[in-house]
Amino acid sequence: MRSQRVGEQIKKEVSEILRHQLKDPGLVNLISVTGVELTRDLRHAKIFISIYDHQNAQDAQEKTINILNDRASGFVRSEIGKRIRLRHVPEIEFYLDRSMAYGAHIENVLRSLESESGDDKPK
Question: What pTM value is reported for the model?
Fold first, then answer.
């Protein structure tokens, strides 16, 4: 499907832009683009990112999302327009991808259940 191909290209380009061209001092260095969802008409894009910051993780993540949406989205959109030939460059909005944190939480729950059931076994 065309929207998937364009979404993958946007993901690649946004990753490159965030890594090499965005120089906002409020942003943490470790930002990864995990996915892009485009509407069928290719006019709106949701860009999902993971943010790796071990100190004040929740605050840093929210601050980074706000910076990207408020200050950087116009620049990123214009760069997408320069790099990808599209009739209309999609409006972009950044979202926090919480799947990694959710996966880690599930893994911890499974480990705790496993250790609890291991304590009940006769020796």
Answer: 0.77
Q: Let me know: does 31 contact 18? Beta carbons within 8 Å.
A: yes
pLDDT digits (tens, 9 = 90+) for 9-53: 999 999 999 888 887 766 766 788 999 999 999 999 999 998 876
Which of 55, 71, 88, 59 shows the shortest CA–CA distance to 18? 71
Q: Is residue 104 part of a domain?
A: no
Task: Tell me the CA end-to-end span of the chain in Å, nearest whole number.
Answer: 57
What residues does 51 pair with on adjacent strands? Answer: 31
Pairing of strands 44-51, 91-96: parallel
- Only one residue has tokens 């926090």, namely 96
CATH code for the domain of 68: 3.30.300.20
Q: Is residue 92 part of a domain?
A: yes
